[in-house]
Amino acid sequence: MQYLHDYILKEGRVLSSQVLKVDSFLNHQVQPTLIQEIGREFANAFANSQVDKVITVEASGIHIAYATALALGVPFVYAKKKRAVTQSDDVFSAPVMSYTRNETVDITVSKSFIRPGERVLVIDDILANGNAVMGLLDILQSAEANVVALGVVIEKRFQDGRAKIQARNIPILSLASIESMENGRVVFTDSEESKMEFLTKE
Amino acid sequence: MQYLHDYILKEGRVLSSQVLKVDSFLNHQVQPTLIQEIGREFANAFANSQVDKVITVEASGIHIAYATALALGVPFVYAKKKRAVTQSDDVFSAPVMSYTRNETVDITVSKSFIRPGERVLVIDDILANGNAVMGLLDILQSAEANVVALGVVIEKRFQDGRAKIQARNIPILSLASIESMENGRVVFTDSEESKMEFLTKE
User: Are A78 and B69 inside 8 Å of each other by CB?
Assistant: First the structure.
């Protein structure tokens, strides 16, 4: 997605070979026209996948899930993060380790909002170690929902999120896949290669 | 806003005279077409207010701020919640007491994203005791930004948020203003009265 690649190259700040700041346009300050394009891109990719619902986890996936759900014409759900491990009959929950915050939180989804057999598209802003997405997949498994795919805006290909998610046979669509960030330079994964992998997987 | 009133009457669940659950369409599961209409409604109301930026606080204001910012053609910023009181030269921060979580969190905004003199529209999902909004107003004051107004989707008129915010001379636009919820029945504030108050204040 050229528009997104341009944003990353122009506005992204590489703080180390592992850390990319995209908080001027994606996950703190947000450029709405970019998000609208991202939502349309995901919606086009999954237009024929009979998506019933989009799911994400608060907070930085919310605007992206909304833009995607609007373009697909379906509702979306955002899992909530709670510190306390509150067992409840009314929610599905899964523990998620956050490295940036150095704590484990529970993410929860009300049982009312995910039904058995629903076809759910998982959306998030960034795929790195994949912990938050794995938590969502656990919840969707508990709910006996069908996971259509994972769509992420930016994938840090050099971290292990992809391997974990593919081990569950979930197709992944990354709109921007970053191969490396050595010496402050963002190198994208060859886009044709990414696309073919996705199509083959799906 | 009739479309929103209908949603509240049809889908909202009054759990007590104080508590209204709107998590099937507004702040857990979300109906995108409703949010799009809400964003357009705010954008129409503030079309001539020279808004430079929309601001909200994570998580449940994000999709609403996005829809509003998109319709206005400006960026939005969401304040982040952090548990640790991290003093930093790079962020504006304010403490916010959360009654639902029974803890005080810091909300923070990077100094890069709010500039002195910017005209900022504050958006949130629900106005009750107004604590989160007061935190945002503190941040905007530190940033020497100009607050255009507060726009909220649902106001619980019988709580004290409005009084606190009006004490700072900030106009408030509520798309749905709830006067009372006695005996499980939602009673809206007379809409003409709400509108006149807003126009007079502005």
Answer: no
